[in-house]
């Protein structure tokens, strides 16, 4: 996907005019450029894929691996307002292959840095780890606050949305409970 910074700058300038602002005044003169640069950064997931980050290492390990409290920042596709929180990723390796721990955080970023629905993002992260790692099981839990619920509409600050995606061996009750305990049972 080609990112068209110039087109975004023009659109932001039009938004400024539409809300009654002067896009040429000192404080707003460079705003269209700053907004376009910001969108290029926070929507960088469109130009990336999980495959770019999944480095596999041969290691005989068949127990659960969890990286929890991975910060996420994304944009709701309905209002283009941020949602933010944390993701917890647990997987059971398959075929004596593990990935670098930081790679799990990078996979989360690939999907978070797009216009998103939290539910879809949670599934995409789980599917990528399951498929690309050949994992025996995966659980992804995402907890986030959505500014579209906090600063507009229903206006409910402090509310969190929690989503989960559970695949393979993680669907078995004892394994699921172990993962949830390790993620939340501190």
Automatic annotation (TrEMBL):
Enzyme class: hydrolase
Biological process, per Gene Ontology: one-carbon metabolic process; tetrahydrobiopterin biosynthetic process; tetrahydrofolate biosynthetic process
Assembly behavior: Homopolymer.
GO cellular component labels: cytoplasm
Amino acids binding Zn(2+): 76, 79, 148
Record keyword GTP-binding present: yes
Natural source organism: Desulfurobacterium thermolithotrophum (strain DSM 11699 / BSA)
Pfam families noted in UniProt: GTP_cyclohydroI
Pathway where this protein functions: Cofactor biosynthesis; 7,8-dihydroneopterin triphosphate biosynthesis; 7,8-dihydroneopterin triphosphate from GTP: step 1/1
E.C. number(s) listed in UniProt: 3.5.4.16
Protein name: GTP cyclohydrolase 1
Alphabetical UniProt keywords: GTP-binding, Hydrolase, Metal-binding, Nucleotide-binding, One-carbon metabolism, Zinc
Gene behind the chain: folE
GO molecular function: GTP binding; GTP cyclohydrolase I activity; zinc ion binding
């Amino acid at each position: 996907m080609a990112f068209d910074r110039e087109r975004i700058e023009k659109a932001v300038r039009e938004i400024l005019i539409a809300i009654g602002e002067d896009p040429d005044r000192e404080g707003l003169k460079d705003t269209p450029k700053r907004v376009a640069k910001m969108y290029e950064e926070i929507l960088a997931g469109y130009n990336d894929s999980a495959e770019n980050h999944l480095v596999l290492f041969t290691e005989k390990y068949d127990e659960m691996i969890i990286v929890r409290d991975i910060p996420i920042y994304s944009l709701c596709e309905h209002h283009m307002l941020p949602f933010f929180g944390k993701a917890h990723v647990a997987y059971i390796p398959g075929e004596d292959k593990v990935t670098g721990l930081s790679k799990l955080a990078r996979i989360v970023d690939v999907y978070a840095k797009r216009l998103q629905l939290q539910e879809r993002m949670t599934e995409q992260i789980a599917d990528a780890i399951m498929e690309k790692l050949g994992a025996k099981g995966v659980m992804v839990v995402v907890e986030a606050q959505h500014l579209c619920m906090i600063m507009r509409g229903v206006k409910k600050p402090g509310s969190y949305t929690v989503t989960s995606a559970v695949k393979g061996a993680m669907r078995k009750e004892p394994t699921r409970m172990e993962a949830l305990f390790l993620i939340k049972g501190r």
